[in-house]
Amino acid sequence: MKTTGRYLFAHLYMSVLHFGGGFCQDEYFSDNALQLPESYKIGWMEAIDDAKFISDITIPGTHDTMALYGGPAAECQVWDLWDQLRAGIRYLDLRVVALENKLYVVHGIVNQHKSFFAVLNMIKGFLSEFRNETVLLRVKPELFGKNNVEKQVSKMINDDETVWVKSDMPTMGKVRGKVVFIQKSSFRLGVPLLETDNQGDYKVSLIADKEKKIGKHLRQASEQCGGNSVILSYSSGTGIGKPLTMHLTPKKLAVKINPWLAQYLGQFSIIHTKACLGVVAMDFPGIDLIQRLIKINH
Ligand SMILES: *[C@@H]1O[C@H](CO)[C@@H](O)[C@H](O)[C@H]1NC(C)=O
Questions:
Q1: Average pLDDT, whole number, for the chain?
Q2: Each residue's pLDDT tens digit, 232-258
Q3: What percentage of residues in the chain have a pLDDT greater than 70?
Q4: Ligand 1 centre from 132 Cα, in Å?
Q5: How far from 43 is each of 85, 134, 168, CA to CA, in Å?
Q6: Which of 15, 140, 201, 269 has the fewest CB atoms within 10 Å, measured from its CB?
Q7: Does the beta carbon of 71 sit less than 6 angstroms from any atom of ligand 1?
Q8: What is the C-alpha separation between 90 and 81, in angstroms, rounded?
Q9: List of residues 6+ apart from 60 with CB closer than 8 A
Q10: Where does the Phosphatidylinositol-specific phospholipase C X domain start and stop, copy by copy (predicted)?
Q11: Whose CA is nearest to atom 1 of ligand 1?
């Protein structure tokens, strides 16, 4: 009894330190280097049932995953791909161009390309370490040679057992340790995608309007989860391109939207148990926002 009491006391004391101190603020937005607490559960998909369909899981993702450079108008992320995966991001949004016989992942508007092959290998490296995870990969062909992208990816992953390119929706158990390709319009490998955004929804002039839109999209997502398509919603956006909101960069929007989204998700998970929101693609997420999404699954 004595040990239990002492343990309980220590536990309470730690809780007060953690929640009452105020110096340990939740991180919903982040533009700092990734620092994971020691207890951080990187392999969160281990807890997902084998029988669950991929389209029925709430999955944190990034919008324009590799947009780390190019100035305030172009930058959407601060963590590199590896750190995003460690933080729990499981949906990646890559912009790919075919140049001569090679594929490159483009980083926003800057001429600083990585080969698609190298990026795919990095994701596979992560999955060989965290074998219960799966990574959804959206490939968006950009600029010229759009048709070539699919052809070349096809060739590259020919017979590769660690990627899923079928259009049937797999269950979690079928794709642990694998990359699941997502298809849409000009890229037709993998499972279909359904976006809740309408064209132009990424342009934001008023934060309050954006919040309303995200709420609407997430409600729609929760109704359509679990079907033949992966449902995707965006919390990202930008005021760039509209004269009166030029100051509203993707980062400045994320500073405001990410804490709002965390609060929305907190309430959502109280009201709806066993819900699903599909993929939510974000800019500059912090680890506590990512955790809020993961928690919806429990
Ligand atoms: C995968 O999950 C199983 C079952 O929970 C666990 O025993 C195993 O350690 C996990 N593997 C990795 C690489 O995390």
A1: 88
A2: 999 998 888 777 788 899 999 999 999
A3: 90
A4: 6
A5: 10, 10, 25
A6: 15
A7: no
A8: 10
A9: 88, 89, 90, 91, 279, 280, 282, 285, 289, 290, 293, 294
A10: 48-184
A11: 132
Tokens 């007060």, residue located:
16
Q: Is 19 exposed, middle or buried (0-12, 13-18, 19+ CB in 10 A)?
A: exposed
Query: 132 CB less than 6 Å from ligand 1?
Result: yes
Q: Structure pTM?
A: 0.90
| Token pair for 183 | 């298809």
Write the CB contacts of 217 (distance below 8 Å, at least 6 apart in sequence): 196, 197, 233, 234
Distance 174 CA to ligand 1 centre (A): 15
Q: Are 255 and 37 in contact (CB under 8 A)?
A: no
Contact 183, 135 (CB under 8 A): no
Confidence of residue 27 (pLDDT cuts 50, 70, 90): very high
Q: Which domains does the chain have, with CATH numbers?
A: 51-295 (3.20.20.190)
> Tell me: the pLDDT tens digits for 173-219?
999 999 999 999 889 999 999 999 988 888 888 899 999 999 999 99
Neighbours of 112 (CB within 10 A): 13
Q: How far is the CA of 203 from the centre of ligand 1 (A)?
A: 42
Rounded to whole angstroms, the Cα distance separating 167 from 182 reads: 9
Assign 113 a pLDDT band (cuts: 50, 70, 90): confident
Write the single-letter amino acid at 270: I
- pLDDT confidence of residue 256: 95
